[in-house]
Amino acid sequence: MRNSPSSSARLINFLGSMNLAISLLVVVAIASIIGTVLQQNQPYTSYQLKFGPFWFDLFKSLELYDVYSALWFLAILAFLVVSIATCVGRNTPGIIRELRHFRENVQEKSLRAMKHQIAINSVQDAAATQALTTRILHAQGFKMRQKVAEDHTVVAGMKGGANHWGYWLTHIGMIVIFLGGLMDSRLPLMIAEWQGNLKPETRNIPASEVPAISQLPDTSFSYRGSVDIPEGSRANIIFQPVRDGYLVQHLPFEVEVKEFRVEHYSTGQPKSFESDLVIYDKTLDAPLETTISVNHPLIHNGVAIYQANFGDGGSELKLRLHSLSNRYASQDVDGKVFRDYTLTSTDQQYKLELNDFRLFNINDMEDGAGNIEKENVGPSVTFKLRDATGQALEYQNYMNPLSIKGQNYYISGVRTTPNEPFRYLHIPVDPKGSMERFMRFLSNIQNTELVKQSALQTTRNSMQKTTVADPTVEAQIVESMQRLTEQFVTKGSDGIMAEIEAKFPQDKQESAAEAFMKVLNAALREVYKETLKQEGVTTEPSDTDWLFFDDSLLAIDKLSAYGSPWFIHMTNFKQIEASGLQITRSPGKDVVYLGSLMLTIGVFLLFYVAHRRIWVWIKPLDNNQAEIIMAGSSNRNQPEFERYFQQLQDLFQQVMKQEVKHVDPPTNH
């Protein structure tokens, strides 16, 4: 009875099994696909906005936002390395035996039973036949070993042993690749975190304020991070993203962006960009000056500096804050992008946070004929306005007026959260190309005395056309006009409709709304005429003036949801660009390249080199001639070997029938 295998033998068989290796490779491949499709190491807020709370939490629990540093992924890689190493170690002795043994002790019965075999009578004697056989196989590139017995001679040939080298190179190459990847992995950082010696920083604070537990020395073995450096500035750190935070990695040198250049297409889209860099390194006799661009990095002492992107570097902006409420004063602010500014007013305090400046904005614009075309609409500023409670709205305001269906407007987008689209406020442009008329009109309809006078004038003009001359009725109409105007400015048309729905039955609401709007429109038209008079317009308003009036009412109607007491208009700027650099130190890169080369050569040897064996059994006959039995085998591509064996058979039949002095080898396929 055969003994059952020991536990260690079963473990080795399991680790070295092909099924296990293939299963692990499939899991690694799926994880790699996820890591390619799902952009890695982004801020958690962007994933939350993209996937929503449920899927965000699920993907986070599976560590899919940093797949290649996930514990389960590293464990699978380690298990795969062990499996491949076990497989190589278990099969190597057999492969070595296969390469060393020519199997010259083969039996005649075995040769005759092979699929590829033939028996040939030679006109030469056994010695000459043996010599011819040796010449033929040598010409074919076979290594040979002979066995001479009393009644026969065996010539055993073998070639294509490099096929088994393909096995070693393929498997060992995979191990080398995994080890190279491990060299550049975040495993040391993960171990430092587990030990409590490292903690990613999650606060948005200056690098100088990041605590020591969130910083890495310039002697780190490998790192990959990015930094934005404004023109004329230098930095000796990068930021490594880690889950929902980051680590500050110090560099062994300083990088200065001397100048940044970007070329644009006619549409305003970036065409190419490059940076003039200066490297300050204590190991250099003089600073190193060079230019990098996309796909043309700088390699300095094993550290690669790539041109990754570009952005704002703290552009200087001049802003005019137009008051949208008479409770607040208009003011001017000189600011810089990425800075915060406190805005004071009579009863509430706001903080202005300048987040970005863009010189070019490519938007889909509709012309007067209704055609949609991409157009560069010029500079814009993005900012947040935060009130005293900490609540903030995000705005994107364009510097230049935009033409929409033939009319020009100053545009401001507003949104509550980054995952929702902007809602736009359109302020019409007056004949002078400014927003002065709109702002004056808005201020006038908030002037209680002016609205009262305009309402009184409108009421008296209307009552003169009727027989009604009642001061009480007149006062009621004037009061209604004032109240409706105030409600329209503070709450918009939705506020008026809400009041109507609260005071009137449903069957009366439509007629009440029509009457209210007529009264409101009459009051506003009178205020608008007064606004034109303040500009010096003494004639009756033209159709263009009344079109401006209609656009103004649409804009004022949206102010209640705009959320800002000012319309912030950028009047001038000085752009300062920042070069976005990705800086990496990857000592495992060359190891991965070596493993990839080994894997490529190994796959080539496995698929394009076949391990072939040929046996020639030579038996002397009584008539001073010889009989030979030729047989062969191959470990791959049997149809091709069958053709090769047929050609070799034809050659043997030819040379064994006559004495020849030269053997031409058949053509290999």
From TrEMBL:
Keyword Membrane: yes
Entry's localization field: Membrane
Keywords in alphabetical order: Cytochrome c-type biogenesis, Membrane, Transmembrane, Transmembrane helix
Membrane-spanning parts: 12-38, 67-88, 165-183, 591-610
Domain spans labelled ResB-like: 18-645
Cited InterPro entries: Cyt_c_bgen_Ccs1/CcsB/ResB, ResB-like_domain
Keyword Transmembrane: yes
Main location: membrane
Membrane-topology descriptor: Multi-pass membrane protein
Pfam families, per database record: ResB
Full protein name: Cytochrome c biogenesis protein ResB
